[in-house]
Structures are given as C-alpha cells and as structure tokens.
Amino acid sequence: MKQKDYLKDISEIKNLMNKSSRFISLSGLSGILAGIYALIGAAIAYYLVDTYSSGTLLLDGWIFRTVMLVLFLVALFSIITGILLTTKKAKKNGEQIWDSSSKRLISNFLIPLVAGGIYILIILTQGKYGQTGGLMLIFYGLALVSASKYSIGDIKYLGFIEITLGLIAALFPGYGFWLWVIGFGIMHIIYGTIMHFKYDIK
Amino acid sequence: MSIITNINKLFDHRIRLGIMSILMVNEYADFNMLKELLGATDGNLASHTKALEKAEYIKVEKQFIGKKPNTRYSTTALGKAEFNKHINALEKLIHIK
Which SUPFAM superfamilies match (chain B) (predicted)? Predict the structure, then answer.
C-alpha cells in the first residue's frame, strides 16, 4: 500500500465512525425558526401580562393558562419544523432518518428534557413559578449537552450557554423572562445561523 | 521496523477496517447495520466478520428478535488494542513519508 491508500484508510475510518454513531443532518434553519417562534411567543406573553395584569401572574388565571398554551404551541411548532427540515436534509445527505444514531440522539435528548418538564409541572402546581424560566433553560441545556455526543458536537456549546443563562435566571428570578427570551429566542437564531452557514450551505 | 510490524495484516482490507471502525464507537452493531454502512454484500461481509471473529477481535452474539434471527457484533478488548496499534502505525507511516 502506498501513502495515499493509508490516508484514504484513515479518512474512511473517521467517516464511518461519525456516520455510525452520530446523526448529523440537524437543520440549522429549523434552529432559526424555533428562535423566531420563541420570540413571537414571548412577545404575546409579554403583551398579555403587561396589558391585563398588574405585573403579577396568578396560577389559576386565564392569562397564565394562555401563556402556558403559547409556550406549548412554541414547543410544538419548533418540534414540527425541526422534524420536517431535518427529514429533508437527511434525505439530501442520503442519511437514514430513523436509524440507531438518530434513535440514540432522541433518547439522550429527551431523558433530561422530560424529567425537567415533569419537575417544572410539579413545582408549578406547588405555586413556585418564579424559577420556571431558569429551570427550563437549565434542563434544555442539559438535554443539548447529553445529545451532543450523538450529533454535531457543536450543540454542546449551545447547551453550556443555556445552562449558564438558566443559573443566572435562578439567581435573578426577576429577569427570568428576559433570560428566557435570550436563551430560547436569540441564542437559537444566532446558533441556527452559524449551523446553517457551517453545515447546510455546501 | 517496529512501525511496519504494527501494521496489522488482518486489518489490511477496506471492509474489515470498516467493521472495526464502526464497532469501536458503538457498543454493538448488527449485521444489517454493518451491511448498510459498508455497502457490502451478505457473503462478503460474512467472510470478513468470520475472519475477525477467528482472530478474537470481535464477539458475535446470535439471538432472536421475535421470530427473526439477529446477529450482533461487538469488539473484544484484544480487538480494540490491536485496532489502536494499527491506527497509530498508520498515522506514523503517513507522518514519516
């Protein structure tokens, strides 16, 4: 074998290791859109709270329920957009959408996220909603870090940023809303744009 | 000379190198997953897994998922060590020349 063959061997090894263990067809564009949905959702929530309540949220009030519904819709639309765009990209890359790497990615992402979601719902029913924004950021960040081993490694850094923002929100619950806007809105848009130019456009 | 001796003849084939690469980063892989990733035919893949199994570089487990037989492969400690040696040797060869 010549040197050229050894080089080819090494690059083939790297390629197979990545392809077999990581799902890399995540779409950057879906991150941008998720960020925009979050900003729209936050704007609606801000408007509702600002117009109809005097700065305090009542857990059993209609405003609170509407805000929860808006949050739910933001999450739902983000997931649907993510699935649609990622499927499209996977098809273009010739990557299987539902193989062992994407299954592992999803389960590692969902475990911290679902645990966190349930925890947040439990403390909400106990009336402790001052920490909700921070907790959402922290658990989402942990989910990203945990999933990053099975996808583009870069999402780990987004995870670290979300965790940091979450901890800051825990220290200053008064800014929870704005940190949530930064974490879920602005960071998604920035990150999605970086991913889009780094991986999508080739 | 020591570099050349670390080049493992058993890995001197695209499919075998591929099988080992996949198994190094995955706890296990089944026959179909290997086949898809490597783009090999059944017979071809089977002969290479057999060679690696004989050298005790990989472990083969046969089981049933429902009624379908399923063969899954994983690396042994020996296989991992040999593969690492092989990769180091490859890298050294590239840097020397």
Answer: Winged helix' DNA-binding domain
ipTM attached to this prediction: 0.77
Answer positive or negative: Cα dihedral of A62, A68, A74, A77.
negative
Cβ contacts of A10 on chain B, cutoff 8 Å: 87, 90-91, 94
How far does A3 lie from chain B, in Å, by closest CA?
6
Single out the residue of A201, A16, A13 nearest to residue A92, CA to CA. A201
Q: For helices A3-21 and B31-38, what crossing angle results, to 10°?
A: 130
Return the half-sphere exposure (C-beta side, CA atoms, 13 A cut-off) of residue A82: 15
Q: Using a CB-CB distance cutoff of 8 angstroms, which residues of chain A are in contact with residue B14?
A: 9, 12
Ordered by where they begin, the domains of chain B are 2-91 (1.10.10.10)
For the stretch A146-202, pLDDT in tens is 999 888 878 999 999 999 999 999 999 889 899 999 999 999 999 999 998 888 775
Q: B18 touching A, CB under 8 A? A: yes
Q: What CA–CA distance (Å, rounded) separates B61 from A139?
A: 37
> What are the angstrom distances between the C-alpha of B5 and each of A11, B42, B90?
22, 31, 11
